[in-house]
């Protein structure tokens, strides 16, 4: 895992460049580390699943996204992502969250779309990555180098695309999936 202070500095540099390109000026900002997450029951799902929409409500343990637009001045600069899976428990509250998943889950793609695609990654990159064995950081986040940024006051989509023709079996005990985005939340004033 990168040093978080160094990563924050890189994220702020990227955001400053983007703000200049978008013609947005500001007096100051507040930045903090945050992890945005969402969880869904993939049992019986296939094709494309929208994970956030205007009706998404923050529900502790399930998601901390509230709708599909950020408040004015609030930016999410993403620097890492991980996927977690639960195959035995039926509720989010009881999930033990493993880093491996069944093929139908980990062979899909995850996209963030906001005025075009800002992020797309095959889910094999975020499930069963076992960084802990490779470098000892133990957090299983996949670092992102391009810092995808979700802007305020503009609709965004987070969508899960299953492999063509593949459906998560409806007869499995459970198929809960969780995506966590390690972010720098920046609020401009």
Query: Which range best describes the helical content: under 10%, 10-25%, 25-40%, 40-55%, 55-70% or over 70%?
Result: 10-25%
* SS class: alpha+beta
Number of domains: 1
Largest sheet: 5 strands, antiparallel
Q: Tell me the β content.
A: 25-35%
Query: What is the β-strand count?
Result: 9
Low-confidence stretches: 131-138
Total number of helices: 3
Radius of gyration: 17 Å
Overall mean pLDDT score? 88
Helix/strand order = HEEEHEEHEEEE
What is the straight-line distance between the termini? 30 Å
Shape: elongated
What does this structure look like?
The structure is a single chain. With 189 residues, the chain is of the alpha+beta class. It has one domain (4-188). It contains three helices and nine strands. The strands form two sheets. Strands 1, 3, 6, 7 and 9 form a five-stranded antiparallel beta sheet that branches. A four-stranded antiparallel beta sheet has the order 2-8-4-5, with no helix packed on it. The chain is elongated and about 55 Å long. The model is unreliable at 131-138 (pLDDT under 50).
């Amino acid at each position: 895992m990168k040093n978080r202070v160094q990563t924050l500095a890189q994220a702020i540099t990227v955001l400053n460049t983007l703000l200049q390109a978008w013609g947005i000026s500001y007096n100051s900002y507040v930045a903090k580390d945050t992890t945005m997450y969402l969880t869904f029951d993939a049992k019986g799902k296939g094709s494309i699943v929208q994970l956030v929409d205007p009706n998404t409500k923050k529900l502790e343990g399930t998601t901390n996204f509230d709708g599909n637009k950020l408040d004015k001045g609030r930016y999410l600069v993403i620097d890492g992502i991980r996927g977690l899976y639960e195959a035995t428990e039926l509720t989010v509250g009881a999930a033990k969250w493993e880093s491996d998943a069944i093929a139908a889950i980990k062979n899909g793609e995850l996209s963030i779309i906001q005025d075009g695609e800002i992020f797309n990654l095959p889910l094999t990159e975020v499930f069963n990555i076992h960084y802990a064995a490779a470098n000892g950081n133990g957090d299983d986040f996949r670092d992102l180098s391009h810092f995808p940024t979700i802007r305020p006051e503009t609709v965004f989509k987070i969508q899960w695309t299953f492999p063509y023709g593949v459906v998560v079996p409806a007869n499995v005990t459970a198929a809960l999936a969780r995506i966590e985005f390690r972010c720098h939340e920046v609020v401009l004033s």
